[in-house]
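User: Please look over both lines:
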Amino acid sequence: MHKPIILIIEDNREIRLSARFVLEDFGFAIAESEAPAQAKSWLAQQKADLILLDMNFGLDTTSGEEGLSFLAWLQQQAWDIPVVAMTAWSNTELVVKAMQLGAGDFIEKPWNNQRLHQVLQQQLHLQALNRKNRALSQRLEDPKPELVWQSDAMNQLMQQLAAVATTDANILLTGENGTGKSQLAHWLHLNSPRAQQAFISVNMGAIPETLFESEIFGHKKGAFTDAKEQRIGRFELAKGGSLFLDEIATVPIAQQAKLLRVLESGEFEMLGSSQTQRTDVRIISATNGDFAQMISEGLFRQDLYYRLNTLEFRVPALRERPEDIAALATFFVAKHGQRYRKPELKLSPSALKTMQAYQWPGNIRELSHMMERAVLLTQHGDLTAAQLNLPVNTQSKTAASADQLSFDKMPMMTLEAAELQLINQALADCDGNKQKAADLLGITKSSLYRRLEKYDLAN
C-alpha cells in the first residue's frame, strides 16, 4: 500500500527529527529539506503528497517572507501538492497571506501530535476529493457496451478476448470502421481487474497536432497562451484503469516518439511542468489502417507498433458474420423504439430478408443508424424493407422487397412482366412514394417515370 510522502521543509534539525518520529508512527513516509531552495531541487526530481512548510528561515524569524516566497513559487508550478504551514507563534496576518498563496491549513509550534495528524489527514483527503472531482468534470461516463452476437466468427473472437481480458497486456483491435472496436475495448476493461477504475476513450484522429501533448499529458495553467487553467491529461485521467486510443494510426509521426516514451517507461510530464509523473494504465488501441504499408512508407514507427500490439485481434466485418444481422437489427429497433417511445415497432420478414442480402459497407454503425432512421420515420406497425430505404444498387445480390416475393421461387415470365410486377410491388411497399420506390428499385426517379408511362401507370 502506498504511504503518503510528507516533505518537511524546516531549518531546525531537531524539529525535523521530532516531526519524522511522530509522522512515521502515523504511517507516513518522510522526506526532509532544510531550506526552500533545497526543497525546490528535490521536488524537481520527486513527488510529495503533502508539504509541511516552516514559514521562517535564515532571513528572519518573524516575517514569514521566505515561506510566502516558496508558496508563490509552488503555485506557479501547478503540481497540486497540499501545503500545511507552520510557525512558532500565532500570526493572523501571516496565516491569511499563506492561505491566499495556497496553504491549506496552519499549525503552530510546538504542535499537538493528534492535531497535527488530523490536519494532515484532512488535507490529504480533501486533495483526493478535488482530484476526483476534476477528473469527473473532464470526462463523460461511457455507456455500457452493446454487444450482440451468435456467429461462429464472433464466438471465436470473444473467447480469445475473454482469455486475455484479465491480463495487463496492451491490445490492438483492427478492422473496418463501424465494426464495434470501441464497444469491445470497453468490454475488455469491464472484464479486467481494472473494471472499478476509469475507462478513458480518446479519438486520436480528432486531436489537432498542436494540442496533442495538452490532451494526452495535460497542461498546467499558463503553459501556453490559451491555457487559462490546469488541465488533466488522458494518461492521468485513466490512472489505475484503461486508456483506449481509437484511430491510433492517425497520430502524426512527430508525436509518435512522445507516445512511445510513455509506453516504454511509464513516465511523462504535464505540458509546462518539469515534474515527471508515472502512469499506471492498460493500453487498448484500435485502427482501420494498414500498419504494414504505413510503416514501409515511414508514416508510423515500427517500435511504437510493437508496443501497441502485444496482442492483436481483427474484428470481423458485419458481412462476414451474417448470422448476427437479424439479432443486431432487432436489438437496435428495440433500443431506438424505447428511446423514441415506439416500443411496439418490429421488423417484418421482408425487412430481415433484405438486410441479409445487403453488404453493409458501414458495418454495425450503419445498421444502427438505419434502424434509428426507420424507427423515426415509422408511426406504427412493422418496419418493412421499403421503410429501411436501403441503397439496393450496392447490394451483393438482388433482394426482393415484398413480404411474399422470393426470387428463387419466382415463376418464369417475360422480362417486361417481371419489371411491371417489381414496379407495382415497390410502389405498394412505399405507399405510392415514387422517390422511395425508385431508390428501392435502384433506378433514378426519372427512369421510374419513363417506365410508369410505358406501362400506363403514370396517373
